[in-house]
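>> received
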Amino acid sequence: MEQAKTTLEQKWQEENGNKKIPPGKQINFTDPDSSIMLTKHHGVQQCYNHLAWVDVKAHIILGAHTSNNASDQLGLQPTLEHAEKMCGSLKDIQAGADAGFFSANNIAFMRRKGTDFYASYAVAKSPYAKDKFAYDAQSDTYTCPEGQMLSRQKTKKSGKIGEYSNKEACQSCPLSPHCTKAKDGIRKIERDMENDPIREEAKAKADSEKGKEILKQRKSVRNLYGQHFKCRDEWETDAWTWDGQCFT
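>> returned
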């Protein structure tokens, strides 16, 4: 057991630039390539993240990817590349995905592939979250939930990030303590000048009538969460979950 432990520790250090193993780091003896993940229905588990792209009509898996990374966002591109290898070009195909795959990188990737891509997106609960501030490209301003206009005050990171605020409006606003935790009481909105437009366009696309229909079809793909199987050798097991996406 000690020898196996030493071997696993050496492997981890080799893969992580000989860094010191963090306190509390867990390494699985029986399956060291797996990872500890928070699952949707079974709490924290030692497992893999399985992703699949599925034809919404035939319910046939067109491409799949398995990794030990819990992030669905990082799994979209290799899953699609596998589907492309199996089925050919993805150009002009309609595809839907849930909010776990929503990112500017993934949206841009699908554009380059020529795929008509629709993705759900998470909506913040706070009435003062960034997505509750409406951006107007023509005037390059944000409008806050109380109707006040925030203009760009400066740019950072070589012009990649714009910072928007309205000092006078915030200082006279009774809701400022609920809107920001800044000590000066001034709400500042940072805009990723390259990626925020991509996200905004994708959200509008998902909210369109066509987008709603595509994403509704995505839900028709059967999900294997919770399915219980008895194998031929009498071992009982829970099925891995295919996080089903759709092609139409």
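>> Residues 55 and 247 are 5 Å apart (CA to CA).
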